[in-house]
Amino acid sequence: MPPFPVSELLVMSWSAGNPRDSSLFTSWGVLYRFETAPERRKTVTTIWRAISETKQERVARFEWNSDGDLGRALIGRSSIPMADLVRRFGPASTMWTGPDGYEYTWTPSTTTPTEILVSPSHSHV
Questions:
Q1: Which of 12, 55, 97, 120 pairs with 90 at a CA distance of 20 to 30 A?
Q2: Do 54 and 92 fall into the same domain?
């Protein structure tokens, strides 16, 4: 059961400018925590889901290889190629199709040292 009323409109915010090392939270508290760290010849992003104020569980682990290969994703107990989830879009951007059917893009910001999520209408999310 989620830690908030399901019927309530949910406004989620990032705790930091860089979503690679940030928490996604609402007025009810932290829902997910994103943690990114170098590991051998790749970068690994782990997503943790808050179960309670003091407990969390790993829900996904994404490997980003340093040679430009997308690596693998571990979601729950399933391991799949990252290429099944996302695709490269230009030299530094990644694109995927969301559950709403629209395409989204992570792209480097031209004004800050972070990345930006761009929606299909080309607005920053």
A1: 12
A2: no
| DSSP code at position 109 | -
Q: Is 24 helix (H, G, I), strand (E, B) or coil?
A: strand
pTM to 2 decimal places:
0.66
The Cα 32–Cα 10 span in angstroms is 14
Domain carrying residue 97: 86-125
Q: Is the pLDDT of residue 116 over 90?
A: no
Digit-coded pLDDT (tens) for 7-56: 555 677 778 777 778 888 888 888 888 898 988 888 898 989 999 888 99
Tally of domains within the chain: 2
∠ CA 103-22-44, nearest 5°, is 75
* Integer Cα distance of 114 and 121 in angstroms: 20
Determine the Cα–Cα distance for residues 107 and 89; give it in Å rounded to an integer: 9
For 91, the 3-state DSSP assignment is: coil
Instruction: Answer with the residue of higher pLDDT: 121 or 101.
Output: 101
Q: Where would I find the beta strands (DSSP E) of 29-122? A: 29-39, 42-50, 56-65, 72-75, 78-81, 87-89, 93-97, 103-108, 115-118
